[in-house]
Design brief:
Layout lengths: L1 H13 L4 H4 L4 E8 L6 H15 L2 E6 L26 E6 L6 H12 L3 E5 L10 H7 L1 E6 L4 E7 L13 E5 L2 E5 L5 E6 L12 E8 L2 E6 L5 H4 L2 H14 L11
Parallel strand pairs: 1-2, 1-3, 3-4, 4-11
Antiparallel strand pairs: 5-8, 6-7, 6-9, 9-10, 10-11
Length: 256
Amino acid sequence: MLRSLVLFATALLSGLVSPAHAQEKPVRILLVLGSPKFHDIRTFAPTIEKVLDKVGGFKVTRLEPPADKPPNDDAHMTRLADIKRADYDVAVFYTTGYKLTETQERALEKFVEDGGGLVAIHGASASFGNSQAWMRLIGGKFAGHVPGTHKLNIVLNEIKHPVTAGVPPFAVVDEEYNHTFAKVERQVLAQFKERPKGSKGTNMDVVWVREIGKGRVVYNALGHGKEAWENPAWQQLTVQAILWSAGQPRQVVIAK
């Protein structure tokens, strides 16, 4: 008991937890994972969970392929048909590939319309390519990138939005994504300052948000590998995206 109190007091003093939020119910996250090996879901999950643990106030449930199956096995995705707002506050997708049935599409749409949050990271825009509903939800679809990773300079369009509050312009080593955009409203929060040599992209959008019904959606094109996941600015963007989409916006401090 004493040790728990000491740890809690340390968190308060370090700025990772504030008294106003310490007693709130945790944000319930469904972390949806699955990809061919070029996106390492097995490393991504514990990396982001460690960040969330340090910030505090989250409860994560993974929806992922079993350890004895390939990382792009699809059996677990059938459970998306049962996603409900009563069970989760936000669904975070770190996925690539797959397909959605009409039942799964409608379940995801209803989850957001009913007030659930949706945070789609990196390859999530290259997921569910058969689904126009998914493209509309997140606002776009992956349309290619320059091979390899590059040092990318990111600038913030909106510095007062809860997702980007306190995040400075930053550089990150990552893939440079291009997108085809759905004909829906998007509020762009961050962009590439410039694209790397050889890019065919003309639009600079990197992070954007949408509001649908009672729910909120965030897409972040960054997040290919550890160079991004361990970047404090990327971590802050991701945590604040989860909080805003869950309806509990606040600025967080990421310990370096």
